[in-house]
């Protein structure tokens, strides 16, 4: 895939005693009128596909389904999470959000090709990578924290990735995880304005 059509990023603590803990690489790219997101943290298992204005989904990849131990049995729908495209507001829309909890950051090699989204070493907030789409000629508003883009779509629309943080209420488990899992968050079932996934830590006793 072309360098001009791909954004690589990772959630990473950059300062202090836990500097270097990271989510691992995440990749956003475009092809024709479609936008995709994959996560190295989750191997080749899942892919987010935003197909034009029609089929938006989180699906098990066809490559994974051809592996020896797929997560779904043969014949199951590869896309168990489907959702509608988000609404346009002033020529922009928040299409998808990938968020990371502090607990999802683990010891793994840092990729120099990634843009490392700084995560504060605290347990009461999540850090978000937001995938935006804009109509032709429309830019993102001033003041946003731009991570990468724009990536082109066939229609002339463009795709961008920005970063933000959000507080998390309640007590969080303060231990370094041994792995990472992703929890899908959909507007029809959760109190969110755009579909997304939350990266959480996995603890193996």
What is the compact description of this entry?
With 205 residues, this protein is mostly beta strands. The protein is built from one helix and 13 strands; from the N terminus they run βββββαββββββββ.
Question: How are the secondary structure elements laid out?
Answer:
Blueprint: E1 6-12, E2 26-31, E3 34-39, E4 46-51, E5 55-60, H1 62-65, E6 81-83, E7 92-101, E8 115-118, E9 125-134, E10 145-152, E11 158-167, E12 179-185, E13 196-202
Parallel strand pairs: 1-8, 7-13
Antiparallel strand pairs: 1-2, 2-3, 3-4, 4-5, 5-6, 7-9, 9-11, 10-11, 12-13
Percent of residues in beta strands? 35-45%
The order of strands across the largest sheet is 6-5-4-3-2-1-8
Helix content: under 10%
Helix and strand run:
EEEEEHEEEEEEEE
Q: Determine the mean pLDDT.
A: 87
Return residue spans where pLDDT drops below 50 for at least 5 consecutive residues: none
Find the count of extended strands (DSSP E, 2+ residues). Answer: 13
What's the Cα radius of gyration?
17 Å
Biggest pleated sheet: 7 strands, mixed
How far is the N terminus from the C terminus? Answer: 40 Å
How is the quaternary structure best described? single chain
| Helix-strand makeup class | mainly beta
**Helix segment count?**
1
**Molecular shape:** globular
